[in-house]
Amino acid sequence: MLLTRSGVLRATAPGAAASDVASEATPPRATAPDAAPAAPALRRDPAWRGTLRTGRSVGLFGLIALCAAYDEGAIGDWGALHLRQDLGAGAGLAAAGYAAFALAEASGRLSGTTLLERLGRTRVLILGGLIACAGMLLASLAPDVWLALAGFAATGLGLANLFPAAIARAGRLAGSTGVALTSLLGYSGFLLGPPAIGFLASQAGLRTGLTTLSFLGLAAALIAWLARDPPELSGSPSPHPGS
Fold first, then answer.
1. Which of 163, 169, 215 minimizes the C-alpha distance to 190?
2. Is-above-0.85 flag for pTM?
3. Which of 39, 52, 152, 164 is deepest in the core (most CB within 10 A)?
């Protein structure tokens, strides 16, 4: 009986109770299989964010290509009519408007690689958009045929490298998919530009319609600034200047 009472006393002692509670309250340690599922989620998150950033950049470069093609298509269809109807140029001189634009654009593209290597893609796109904006304002608002021709030539120089540089960069970012999406947006500008200018010309006049093309050049410069790369912001040279 004494042995029984002493066993009861030991069982109800504070130390024994505390050890029992501690053993019950201590959760079992997680095994390796339980902690494993958290790792894939951590690996997927950066990839998802990288895909989102790449898609955003490809979309921005597609908009730059759209602005360039929109202006080029509209100038090709309406530039000569503007010179003949608004400025009274003869048929031959009116046709020289698009010739000046195309010649300047070809010259700009031939020197595009050199410009991209020396200035970088972002500076070339921004300067090109601003030059196209100024040139189109001059071409549409000039009171003289020769000033308008100079404006078309300046627009050609400004637009020269917008389309190819945007396509090339989208290809580096997303491969053939990036090229396809950017080309789709870009070439849609050729389809949208001429009818849009025709509608504006019927409502507010051809000068006003052509003036709106300058805003597309300004928009391309702004989008190029938004799509700039961090190395170009910090001043360090890019490993692919023409990309």
1. 163
2. no
3. 152
